[in-house]
Amino acid sequence: MSSRARLRIRQHIKIPCISRLSSQLQAKLAAPILWRTSTQLSRRLLAAKQHQRCLSCSVRLAQEQAKQDAKTTHFGFENVPESDKESRVGAVFSSVASSYDTMNDLMSLYIHRLWKDRFVRSLNPGLHPKISNPTPQTILDIAGGTGDIAFRLLLHASTINNDHTSRVIVSDINPAMLSEGKKRSQDTPWAWSERLSWVEANAEKLSMIEDASIDLYTVAFGIRNFTNKQAALNEAFRVLKPGGVFACLEFSKVNNAVLNGAYKRWSFGAIPLIGQLVAGDRGELSISCGEY
Amino acid sequence: MAYASASRRLLNLPPSQRVTFFTSTRGFSVLNRPPPNYEGHVPLNVFERGALAAGSAVMSLLNPRRGDLIAALGETTATPYFIYRLRDAMLCNPTGRRILRDRPRITSKSMSVEKLRALPENTVGQAYMDWLDREGVSPDTRDSVKYIDNEECAYVMQRYRESHDFYHALTGLPVFVEGEVALKAFEFANTLLPMTGLSLFAVTRMKPAERSRFWHTYLPWAIGNGLKSKEVINVYWEEELERDVADLRAELGLERPPDLRDTRKTLREQRKTAKEKSEKMSGLMADSP
């Protein structure tokens, strides 16, 4: 490592990124992220050059200013107007609901199952058998349409912790994904039980969930699709009980350069190809299902 | 005889008019794609193109309803050579040159539905409208070309795709699998696009009776007529709408194949009467002591 100062306030974790923060720490997510990697002279010079103004710059800047006046948000690698993002995400997921799990299997070479297993195992849902006067755990799975995480949570709670009272509420903004999840729940013991319920909701507006009623809030590969992440986090803060757990499973950066090279080539080469072959959608789905 | 002269004609052209084989694009990494050459263009490198070609060939054979994969197969297998040959065939013909200059697109806006319906029977336009109604599609359902790098060749591919419905009208082949495969064989002999040849693998999905009809009747018709007729890509369909179909066929040097719908209908009726007869016979035999 170079002797030059490296200031890192936010820690980058290898794939997959599992961050467990208690509800008190969520407020800190509101703070802007500062990250300065190195103080190389060349980089500073390059940055200085870009601020030189030329005769045509002012016209161009004025045009860009007009474009940026519409509030934009991320959609994969594009910046799109906020009003567009929800409908574009919606359109993507409606069209691929039935092949979503096949897509995930192929794009991650089945490894996503291991990630989700580890995610649930590390959360260890379900009450400890030795707790006296237990209140049943309520778990909220956001953007959990096809039920992957929800079924794993219930299975872990029932079989490992012998807890048959915990319940999971699966919430998704897309009704096609929810019906796919309900279909899959037929193969589980909880299809018609009170332990599993389905709610169509936007994560930024969970009006049907009461304040401080959730013990565990999980969102797996969903937070990238939120138009306004801060609003979703505020809602998470509201619905979680004090001492409740917020768990987010998401893709992050690869620190190893060789692996990063291979990962990027897989993301931009193979993933759109798989999307095209399985679901007929090349760009947007691969971003939503995918990759940084 | 006619087939040999066609290839001889091509080889007799001066080298400047013969086909380019490879383009001069350099290989690139997926992380560093070149900018698109036209709207909707997705530049692919050799590996991506090969993988998409192989994948779409397999997936479209398993699920023939995936029109987008058949389109992708066509585009990824058209280079090198084949799409350039087709473009040069258009350049060699005065009508083809006009089409490349005007670049007409066949959409629901350019093809007025009311005007087409008003045309008399046996015109190209009426046959086309008939086909659209029977299939329940509009001209807008065709995908736009994405994977061909040269902009002009991308238009040639788009024109081929949009004219496919007119080829149905021209040959009188119906829209179900048997007719489609026969039409693809004709297109292969005429345009030499690899996707049309690869589509012939769909014979494995046909019923035995259909398959024997294909081998005995429709494939010989397709190869013979495809090679001896003029290039159908050079027909300016927008100008031929009011023309009589038989007239256009005569000009192109094309014969109509045996009507597939009538053949299948007669065979179906024959099978039905045979079945009724056999049931009556078995009924009589059961009654007799």
Q: How many alpha or pi helices of chain A?
A: 11
Largest interface, by Cβ-Cβ below 8 angstroms: which chains and how many residues each? A-B, 11 and 15 residues
Largest sheet of chain B: none
Query: Could you estimate the helical fraction of the residues of chain A in percent?
Result: 40-55%
In N-to-C order, the SSE pattern of chain A is EEHEHHEEHHHEHEHEEHEHH
How many β-strand runs of chain A?
10
* Helix segment tally of chain B: 13
Helix content of chain B: 55-70%
**CA-atom Rg of chain B in angstroms:** 22 Å
What general outline of chain B do the C-alpha atoms trace? Answer: globular
> In percent, how much strand structure appears in the residues of chain A?
15-25%
Distance between the termini of chain B: 67 Å
Instruction: Average the pLDDT over all residues of chain B and give the rounded result.
Output: 86
How would you sum up the major sheet of chain A? 6 strands, mixed
What is Rg of chain A? 21 Å
Q: Going across the major beta sheet of chain A, what is the strand order? A: 2-10-9-6-7-8
Distance between the termini of chain A: 25 Å
Class computed from helices, strands and strand pairing of chain B: mainly alpha
Low-confidence stretches of chain A: 1-19, 30-39, 285-292
Order of helices and strands of chain B: HHHHHHHHHHHHH
Mean pLDDT of chain A: 78
Organism (chain B): Lepraria finkii
Binding site for Zn(2+) (chain B): 164-165, 168, 180
Membrane topology (chain B): Peripheral membrane protein
Pathway (chain B): Cofactor biosynthesis; ubiquinone biosynthesis
Describe, in plain words, how this protein is organized in 3D.
The complex is a heterodimer of chains A (292) and B (289). Chain A has 292 residues and is α/β, with parallel strands linked by helices. Chain A has helices spanning 23-26, 41-50, 57-69, 82-96, 100-107, 111-123, 148-160, 175-185, 229-239, 257-279, 284-288; strands at residues 7-8, 17-22, 35-36, 72-75, 78-81, 138-142, 167-172, 196-200, 214-220, 240-250. In chain A, the strands form three sheets. A six-stranded mixed sheet of chain A has the order 2-10-9-6-7-8. In chain B, α2 (46-62) packs antiparallel against α3 and α9 (177-191) runs parallel beside α11. The longest helix of chain B is centred in the C-terminal third of the chain and has 28 residues, at 260-287. Chain B has one domain (46-258). Chain B is mostly helical and 289 residues long. The N and C termini of chain B lie far apart (67 Å). The model of chain B has no long low-confidence stretch (mean pLDDT 86). The chains are: A alpha/beta (292), B mainly alpha (289). At the A-B interface, α10 of A face α2 and α3 of B.
